[in-house]
Design a protein that fits this description.
The protein is an alpha+beta fold and 417 residues long. The protein folds into three domains: 15-155, 2-Layer Sandwich (Beta Polymerase, domain 2); 160-269; 310-416, Immunoglobulin-like. It is built from twelve helices and 16 strands. Strands 1, 2, 3, 4, 5, 6 and 7 form a seven-stranded mixed beta sheet that branches. Strands 11, 12, 14, 15 and 16 form a five-stranded antiparallel beta sheet that branches.
Amino acid sequence: MSIEEQFLKFHENIKLTSSQREDAITKYTGVCKKLHDYYYPKTEYNGGTKLLIGSYGKQTNIRPARDIDVIFFMPSEKFSQYDDNTSNCQSQLLQDIKKILEEKYPDTPIKAFGKVVVLEFADTKHNVELLPAWENEDGTFKIPNSENNGSWEQWNPRSEIKKIKDSDTNTGKTKALIRMIKKWSENCTVKLKSYQIENGILDFFSSNDCSEKDYSEIIKTFFEYFYSTTSDESTKSHLATALSRANKARDFEEDNKSNEAVTEWRKIFGDDFPATLEKNITISQNTEQSLSDYSHCETLKWPFLSGCRAGIDAYIYNEAKTTKLGGINSDGRSLSTGLQIKFTANTNANNNFQYYWQVVNTGDAARQAGDLRGKFFLGSQAQWEHTQYKGKHWVECFIVQDDTCVARSGKFFINIK
């Protein structure tokens, strides 16, 4: 496996899992629909009164799940109501939004301060930071700022989103590089804001043609560029360390010492950068395999009352479970045998409940070994499985409360070749 393939796997490892993406959609949709139903009672919510901003709007978000920034479009006629307020009308606006959302989320801490209303959901790191705003004719927004007795500000988040989109269209690598540098920043604890990384990468690509370069060369060159354009001494110190390691990694690559190169890249990016796995993980352009017979699978044995959410995150480990090799999505890249996978369930169910799991093996290898499985079993939040049999298999988690299934994760498919 080439170093470039390692970088492509690294990029996949730091993107949100499918369950994390679904959780984000559930969170911001629930919040925005509640406000839409209140402010636009005569129209059905279709997402047109919200705009994702921040890393989710720019599509540069990384694991683990973080705050979702979203604008809610306030009705135009409501502006005069708040603008006529003689007190801090911006603060009043945020408090009104807070009260509306408390009707739907009475058990969720909700804070209103500065420019936003923040919902601090307990079940995951996906909080929602909602910014109420009025859209101007030119597509910009009038937004509140409740600090210093309150004021209205003009903002153009669409221009920020467009810059990154246009750059990524030109380079094919802008969003990926932003994600990777965010992970470096997180791994080495350098105090950089997302916009600093984004602006640095936009400027870098505007003056550097990287169309024929692979990621290892691009990242090394970016560290050089960022070091030369940064004045903060603490940031320069972290960049100097990263650049030194990137240079070592590049030297190892030129000497065909892939393992040593990967070791240096892992020092920069952490465990999400996959270890050298020529014998352990393979990538196929066509990762989806056919699902073999699963008639041995036990059918749901509890009454199902949908009312809660459940999902699964999955991470790959070496056979000894000592080294995390990165994450994987359902029906993602094909894995070879000899690996361990840790499945972790997440749910918003409250009070007492139990985690039940169902592991379904399919295919000739599992059948010949007499290990097709498929029955439900009581477990904990985490479930370890081994990539033992070639074929397409699945894992599913069920949240059972008072002998009723209140949530199910859906099938998480694993392809083994």
